[in-house]
Automatic annotation (TrEMBL):
Its EC number is 3.1.3.7. The keyword Cytoplasm does not apply. One of its GO terms (biological process) is sulfate assimilation. Mg(2+) binds at E70, D135, I137, D138, D298. This is 3'(2'),5'-bisphosphate nucleotidase. SUPFAM superfamilies: Carbohydrate phosphatase. It comes from Podospora australis.
């Protein structure tokens, strides 16, 4: 079968692999150049550098496409020390395979050009045309802790997710490794056991393969969600931060469903990847405030990967995630991801506990 999005998928996978080389380098450096954003959340030189490398690869291959990315360069324009730390990283990060690196286009010419590249992620998003969405480091807090984080990239066409790629440097390569909160914490880069690249193309299924530092690993496997025969043995995952997902509501929902295990708290879209390959079963993200709008870069790749692996992803009202309304999921509230066969059952209990009338 020839893929409808073969080139987009290949470039996206290589761009994510290259960005993950940069984030891993930052993790091993003492100074991560962490600054606090207006919403008090952290951003590091790794987030900015990874975003620059991914946008540069996309613009070299698909110059007409728009990009919605999490970070912006404003702070770097006035902080020359931070800017030069990022530039040192960006100009020295390459895939260790010349043919693969060439596919991603030439190097960014200068530090100033790098700032403009970062700011090319400022599209408003919307319902027409081709729009890429990037979370250069999802789960920045997890990244700083040595826990889970993900480099996330997805292509939307007319608001629909067509391609999704998640690079998870600290998840086990082994699709059947059991899910636990401390899995991959401070994972070693060099033992070959950690680092996985999840991918999906609409209507073509989802895969996992080892995350490499060069050409794509040929060791690609189809992944699928695990059927839940018995809810009491099911595992569900949620955010680490109580401010990102209501953990007392999720405990009530789990109890009503008959789930006996504690939730696995894990940062980032590694949650979507983990349930898509059957290492976990259900992902609950329950709103903590009426005003917070989820960001499209926090969900687009994971939404497609889970659906292509046989899952269903909706919000707490049972609506599909709508990526066509701008930079945020303004028409949605929370996320419920589960195998298609049990999604209705999970949603019914979510709505009962949250007091949502179906
Ligand atoms: N209030 C609130 N509610 C929900 N979500 C929020 C909120 N504030 C921030 N964010 C976004 O959460 C992203 C990280 O989500 P996680 O599921 O990884 O959270 S956690 O780190 O496990 O707690 C995180 O992504 P990154 O900034 O890329 O790490 C934010 O975009
Ligand atoms: Mg952030
Ligand atoms: Mg994020
Ligand atoms: Mg981020």
């Amino acid at each position: 079968m020839t893929s409808n999005y073969a080139k987009e998928l290949e470039i996206a996978q290589l761009a994510v692999q290259r960005a993950a080389i940069l984030t891993k380098r930052v993790f091993h450096e003492k100074a991560k150049g962490t600054v606090s954003k207006d919403d008090k959340s952290p951003v590091t030189i790794g987030d900015f550098g990874a975003q620059a490398l991914i946008i540069s690869a996309l613009k070299a291959n698909f110059p007409q496409d728009e990009v919605v990315a999490e970070e912006e360069a404003a702070e770097l324009r006035t902080n020359s020390d931070l800017q030069s730390q990022i530039w040192e990283l960006v100009k020295s990060t390459q895939l260790n395979d010349t043919a693969a690196e060439t596919l991603l286009g030439g190097a960014i010419p200068s530090s100033e050009a790098m700032l403009d590249v970062i700011d090319q992620g400022n599209s408003k998003g919307g319902k027409t045309g081709r729009i890429w969405t990037i979370d250069p480091i999802d789960g920045t807090k997890g990244f700083l802790r040595g826990g889970q984080y993900a480099v996330c990239l997805a292509l939307l066409q007319d608001g629909d997710v067509k391609v999704g790629v998640l690079g998870c440097p600290n998840l086990p390569v082994d699709d059947s490794a059991p899910l636990s909160a401390d899995i991959g914490t401070n994972a070693k880069d060099d033992d070959g056991k950690f680092g996985v690249l999840f991918s999906a193309v609409q209507a073509e299924g989802a895969t996992s393969r080892p995350l490499t530092t060069g050409a794509l690993s040929r060791d690609s496997k189809k992944i699928s969600m695990k059927p839940i025969a018995d809810m009491s043995a099911a595992s569900f995952c949620e955010s680490v931060e109580a401010g990102h997902s209501n953990q007392s509501d999720s405990a009530k929902i789990a109890e009503k469903l008959g789930i006996t295990k504690h939730s696995v708290r894990m940062d980032s879209q590694a949650k979507y990847g983990s349930i898509a390959r059957g290492a976990g079963d259900i992902y609950l993200r329950l709103p903590t405030s009426k005003t917070y709008q989820e960001k499209i870069w926090d969900h687009a790749a994971g939404d497609l990967i889970v659906r292509e692996a046989g899952g269903q992803v909706t919000d707490t009202l049972g609506r599909r995630l709508d990526f066509s309304v701008g930079r945020t999921l303004a028409s949605n509230s929370g996320v419920i991801a589960a195998p298609a066969a049990v999604h209705g059952q999970v949603l019914a209990v979510v709505q009962e506990v949250l007091g949502i009338k179906a």
